Amino acid sequence: MAEFNFTRTSDVDEFEAGYKAFKAGTMSEERFTPFRLQMGVYGQRQEGVQMVRVKLPGGNLTPDQLDVIGDCVADYAGCLPTDGTLSIAPEKFAHVTTRQDIQANFVSLDDVPAFLRRLDAAGLTTREACGNTVRNVSSCFLAGRCPAEHADVSVHARRFAEFFLRHPLAQQFPRKFKVTFSGCATDCGLSGMHDIGFIATQKDGVKGFQVWAAGGLSSQPMSALLLEEFIAESEMLRVGEALMRIHFKYSDRKRRARARMKYVAQKLGAEGFIEEYRKQRAVIEKTHAEDAGYPEAGWRTPTAELPQSDSGVVDQHNGKKAILLNLFRGDMTPAQCHAVADAARAAGTDKLSVTTEQGLVIADVDAGKVAAAQAVLNAAGLTTEYARGIADVVACPGTETCRLGITSSRGLAEALQPLMADLKKDATLAGITVKASGCQHSCARHHIADLGFHGLAKKIDGQAVPHYQLHVGGSGKAGQPLAFATDPVPAKRAPEAGIAMLHAYKDGRTAGESVHDWASRIGQDGINAVLTPFAGQPGEIDGLIYDWSENEAFNTKGNKKGECAGAVLSMSDALISEAEYELLIARAHTDAMFWAEALSALRRSAVSAARAFLVAYGEAPEDDGEVFGLLAVNAAADKPVMAGFQAVQSAMMNIDLADPGAGVTKLKGVQGEWLALAEKRFAAVPEEVVAAEKAPASIEAAGDVVLLDLSGVACPMNFVKTKIKLTGMPIGSLLDVILDDGAPIENVPLSLQEQGQKVLSKEQISDSQWKIRVEKTGNI
Q1: Residue 695 in contact with residue 738, Cβ under 8 Å?
Q2: What pLDDT was estimated at residue 716?
Q3: How many other C-beta atoms are found inside a 10 Å radius of the C-beta of residue 299?
Q4: How many C-beta atoms lie closer than 10 Å to residue 414's C-beta?
Q5: How far apart are CA 127 and CA 171, in angstroms?
Q6: Considering only CA atoms, which of 481, 403, 483 is closest in space to residue 445?
């Protein structure tokens, strides 16, 4: 089998250097947050502990790697938070996510470098498992073994992930970007809910993919649109890069709630989006001229449908067996991690994969060794019966650890388990999916479930009560509809309400009728009628104010700004990444002697580098034509920047268009040097870890209040300008800032407080404007 390389020890070295800089005070928390997110280290709801996420493209890992994960969980997870929210140390477990990652919670930041080093030594990485990057690339749960597949798309998933991991285009997206691969039209990869979904197929003897794009869930779900009816296998990377260019350039960096590619598709319309894709693809087409297919994917003609079995043991297309495991809520204790690894060894295989349903597969098992493997699993409390069935409830972390969680989705899953004992044996409900999310962001994918639960808060008698909105008849498969949303029911009644919905479907369905078709036939009123007996009524507050697995009355005080959606990377970082990417394109064109294309890319790189330098001056011009002029004015006294800028300008002007080779090559060199200066100037990790400088004690604050009018200045430049103004003011000074209503007044005060400054007051001065008073309390 082909080798895949996802690890670089230098990633861990860089993280450790950044961690030391943060602890020493030379890297601010604002800078450190996106830095650690880039390495898959995510802040929790509780203070003082982290979640560490291991990125497993295609869900693939070996028994030895699972042993290492189990050891790391045992040694580093389960720490007590520092905020006093827990008095008993939390349970240690490895948690399988819906993106085929494995993560550990309650890890002290001090232990993260050692955790990452042990993963790295085992060939595992956390790089770009979080943050505004290409998240883990997923694939079918039986990829490489399924009788229905055209190819082992876990190969494509891993090659795609390998290519874009650390790729300059994919380091500073406006928001995350999700990709999946499916081996056949059954679409187990769920292409309909992804930014890109590749579905393997063959046309006239040519191996390739159908491509879907711009899907997504969260608070405004949108099904993907059909982008390409067919592409050859060798076109996979150029299609991915073209779509990433759209996301990088056009997704909304100012309104992060809308910074996903689906909103670009909504704005442009399907035809406009596809037209833009064609334009972006044309720019990079020649750089992928040497791309080839992937013979290691083992293309084949499908021989049967997707296998299913109540035993959890299914037939592979190569005559061997695959063992499917139930992992309740996706959890494995360290001992269970070792048991799964030992079961694989007892089965004579090193092929393990985790699934998007939070399960696990032991593949390539000889029929005669299945019983031995199951004995090891059963001894560890792990079962295979009815795996991927109705009782295999998918649940996100919810309020247990997530900063955005509203309800205890894991508690709900636990409450559902005993109610599913008989239903899981009912053949009419085979294949029904149940998914529970603790908020609207749909990490458990409730929009695509046959029965989904979406946690929210709703008042009864004026008091907040945890509720779930049920979602009925959804699918994440390409071209299939999302679920119908229902009236919410109190969380304590949600399990019974869900069971009632399943019974209503079972009793009311016609032969072969899907949950979606049944729900569509009875209509919204019919669906809500099933739930009417479970609705919360005035006077029924007692007992309903407690969520599942919670001992205190429901409140949302534990909610915090979500780092996944809220950690704003420096604008300069994003611009430098864009400049690096365009320089990469230019180098490829130069090597191929495509001089015109190389020159265009170098100009784009220079503009992006200039924009990065302008951020420090609070300038973000809309028009590229203004960039160089503004830089010349603002950075006139910055000799290194101006020297590099003038070298780039001179190289551009001296290109002989009749014979551009030498001139373009020189421009490539000087642009690379100027960009290196920008990278050094804005590096996340300081070159030396030294103690943080203190503000000179001799500087006294001026008595007058300074006014900064930011009317009409959008996020995040309003914060940048405020920060620049405060930087030049003594500690103790007062600054009044005029901000527009909406995002500016919501975001700027919060960002200032996160930077350690004191917001003394907020006053609305008109229908559209506010004034805040800020006291500078320390360095910013």
Answers
A1: no
A2: 75
A3: 16
A4: 17
A5: 10
A6: 483
Tokens 């081996």 belong to 183
* Structure tokens belonging to residue 166: 């650390």
Q: Which CATH architecture has domain 394-559?
A: 2-Layer Sandwich (3.30)
- pLDDT tens for 241-292 read 999 999 999 998 877 788 999 999 999 999 999 999 999 999 999 999 999 9
Instruction: Assign 748 to helix, strand or coil.
Output: helix
In whole angstroms, give the CA distance from residue 121 to residue 115: 10
User: What's the DSSP call for residue 79?
Assistant: P
- Amino acid 570: pLDDT: 65
- For residue 58, the tally of other CB atoms under 10 A from its CB is 29
Residue range(s) occupied by CATH 3.30.413.10 in the chain: 148-302, 394-559
| Cross-sheet strand order for the sheet of 41-43 | 41-43, 50-54, 102-107, 94-96, 331-332
Look at residues 566, 453, 443, 564 and name the one whose alpha carbon lies nearest to residue 96: 443
Structure tokens at 181: 């691969």
Q: Does 706-775 carry CATH code 1.10.287.110?
A: no
Closest CA to 676 of 654, 647, 716, 636: 647
Q: Quick one: 148-302 is in which CATH superfamily? A: Sulfite Reductase Hemoprotein, domain 1 (3.30.413.10)
- pTM for this model (two decimals): 0.89
How are strands ordered across the β-sheet holding 206-213?
138-139, 179-182, 196-203, 206-213, 225-232
Domain with CATH 3.90.480.10 in the chain: 313-379
Query: What is the number of other CB atoms lying within 10 angstroms of the CB of residue 689?
Result: 17
What is the rounded distance in angstroms from the CA atom of residue 394 to the CA atom of residue 357?
6
Query: Do 14 and 553 form a contact (C-beta atoms < 8 A)?
Result: no
In this structure, the strands spanning 489-490 and 706-709 are: unpaired
The ranges of the chain annotated as CATH 3.90.480.20 are 1-132
Owner of token pair 């043991």: 313
Assess contact for 397 and 405: CB atoms under 8 A: yes
**Class for domain 571-681, per CATH?**
mainly alpha
CATH class of residue range 313-379: alpha beta
Report DSSP state, residue 216: B
d(CA 162, CA 139): 14
User: 330-343 b/e with 16+ CB inside 10 Å = b?
Assistant: bebbbebbbbbbbb
What CATH architecture applies to the domain 1-132?
A: Alpha-Beta Complex (3.90)
Pairing of strands 196-203, 179-182: parallel
Residues 174, 259 contacting (CB under 8 angstroms)? yes
The β-bridge partners of 226 are: 212
- Closest by CA to 190, choosing from 449, 11, 495, 403, is 449
Exposure string for 63-79, b = 16+ CB within 10 A, e = fewer: bebbbbbbebbbebbbb
Q: Tell me the longest C-alpha to C-alpha distance in the chain.
A: 85
CA-to-CA dists, residue 109 to 19, 30, 48, 51, 122, angstroms: 8, 16, 7, 9, 21
Angle at 276 between CA 225 and CA 665, to 5 degrees: 135
> CA angle, corner 299, sides to 63 and 186, nearest 5?
80
Rg (CA), the chain: 27
The dihedral formed by the CA atoms of 496, 501, 507 and 510, expressed in degrees to the nearest 10:
-160
Of 678, 677, 675, the C-alpha closest to 605 is 675
Contact 253, 574 (CB under 8 A): yes
Which residues are catalytically annotated? 715
Query: Using CA atoms, how far apart are residues 679 and 740, in angstroms rounded to an integer?
Result: 33
- Cα(737)–Cα(748) distance, rounded to whole angstroms? 10
pLDDT beneath 70: ranges in the chain: 1-2, 557-570, 686-703
pLDDT score of 695: 36
Q: Give the separation between CA 524 and CA 45, rounded to whole angstroms.
A: 36
Strands 734-740 and 758-764, how do they pair? unpaired
CA distance 447 to 453: 9
Q: Cβ of 709: how many Cβ atoms within 10 Å? A: 12
